[in-house]
């Protein structure tokens, strides 16, 4: 993954490690809002400030999610050219996203609580 | 832009083939990647910018995430084991031909009998083949379809030897049976290449069912 502008390489590595366990969830959440092709998803991740590491990281993850049945590819009309293949979340993907979202909330709450305790130490 | 897509997809497919991924899966991965790159290209994005310079790493990651089957050819191990297995037989043959090991049928040096010479050489070749095949079987029998591979090798290696021998001898004749190092190296390459080709062919033949396309597509995790 590429370093985030304005931060040190150590912070960038930390960012990469934190994102590693959450990237597929973020991708699924963005696709749940609106289907997208691979590059478009990369752009949305960047716009969200996630710095996901580019197409070389995102497209293989998309392939994994498709293999797991979380997303499916479908043809969609394009205003700028021929019909193009986009990825959309399946019902199983929506269920998984809901479960991941709950798990993430519990995790964040636990981490926040732990960090808050650390401030007082 | 289409040329750039073709280059990227071709480079990725080359890597997938190098990883011995089944042709059907290579075709499917290639089609999917092409569709995605085409969608990006419609927005003016060059595929080379998307994938980056290291197409091989990208292709490997993609294959890993897709969990596609790889055909377990194991050519390197098979060729090395075949060669190592042939060494005892070759050492014995060397001993017989140069008189270190006496055998009743050894052809006399002063009045060579063609039939006896051919019989001795054929017997020694069979011995080398047998030691190689037995080694391959005992060392690599845990690999898929190894029994069929050994049987195919038993059939194809003698054929390759029968084809390569006159070709190598004809080459030797054209250089007046020179024993110069480059000449001997070429002769060894001719003969060894034919045998290695037979081994690779035998392995491919025995695993042809695994390389056949299936209707299942990408397997679920």
Strand segment count of chain A: 2
Low-confidence region ranges of chain A: none
Spell out the CATH superfamily of chain A.
Winged helix-like DNA-binding domain superfamily/Winged helix DNA-binding domain
- CATH topology grouping of chain A: Arc Repressor Mutant, subunit A
Number of helices of chain A: 5
Overall shape of chain A: globular
Detailed description of the structure:
The complex is a heterodimer of chains A (121) and B (221). By secondary structure, chain A is α+β, with helices and mostly antiparallel strands. Chain A has one domain: Winged helix-like DNA-binding domain superfamily/Winged helix DNA-binding domain (Arc Repressor Mutant, subunit A), CATH 1.10.10. In chain A, 63% of the residues lie in helices and 14% in strands. In chain A, α2 crosses α5 and α3 packs across α4. Chain A is globular, with a radius of gyration of 17 Å. Chain B is mainly alpha-helical. In chain B, 73% of the residues lie in helices and 0% in strands. Chain B has nine helices and no strands. The longest helix of chain B is centred in the C-terminal third of the chain and has 29 residues. Chain B is elongated. Chains A and B meet through α3, α4 and β2 of A and α2 and α4 of B.
Summarize this entry quickly:
The complex is a heterodimer of chains A (121) and B (221). Chain A is of the alpha+beta class. Chain A has helices spanning 9-20, 23-33, 38-47, 55-67, 91-120, and strands at residues 71-78, 81-89.
């Amino acid at each position: 993954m590429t370093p985030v502008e304005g931060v040190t390489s150590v912070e960038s590595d930390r960012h990469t490690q934190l994102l590693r366990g959450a990237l597929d969830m973020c991708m699924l959440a963005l696709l749940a809002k609106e289907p997208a092709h691979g590059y478009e998803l990369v752009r949305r991740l960047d716009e969200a400030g996630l710095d996901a590491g580019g197409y070389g990281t995102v497209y293989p993850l998309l392939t994994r999610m498709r293999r797991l049945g979380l997303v499916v590819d479908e043809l969609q009309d394009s205003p700028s050219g021929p019909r193009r293949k986009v990825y959309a979340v399946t019902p199983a993907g929506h269920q998984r996203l809901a479960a991941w979202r709950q798990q993430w909330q519990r995790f964040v709450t636990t981490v926040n609580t732990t960090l808050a305790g650390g401030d007082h130490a | 832009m289409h040329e750039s897509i073709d280059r990227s997809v071709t480079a990725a497919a080359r890597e997938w083939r190098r990883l011995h991924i089944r042709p059907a899966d290579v075709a499917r991965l290639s089609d999917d990647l092409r569709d995605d790159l085409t969608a990006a290209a419609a927005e003016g994005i060059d595929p080379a910018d998307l994938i980056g310079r290291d197409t091989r790493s990208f292709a490997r990651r993609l294959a890993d995430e897709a969990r596609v089957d790889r055909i377990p050819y194991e050519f390197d191990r098979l060729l090395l084991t075949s060669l190592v297995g042939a060494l005892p037989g070759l050492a014995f043959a060397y001993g017989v031909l140069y008189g270190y090991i006496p055998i009743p049928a050894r052809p006399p040096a002063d009045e060579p009998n063609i039939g006896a010479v051919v019989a001795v050489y054929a017997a020694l070749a069979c011995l080398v083949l047998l030691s190689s095949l037995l080694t391959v079987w005992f060392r690599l029998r845990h690999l898929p379809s190894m029994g069929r591979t050994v049987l195919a090798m038993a059939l194809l290696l003698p054929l390759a030897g029968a084809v390569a021998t006159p070709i190598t001898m004809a080459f030797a004749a054209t250089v007046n049976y020179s024993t110069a190092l480059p000449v001997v190296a070429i002769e060894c390459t001719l003969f060894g290449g034919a045998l290695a080709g037979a081994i690779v062919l035998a392995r491919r033949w025995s695993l042809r069912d695994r390389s056949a396309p299936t209707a299942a597509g990408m397997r679920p995790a």
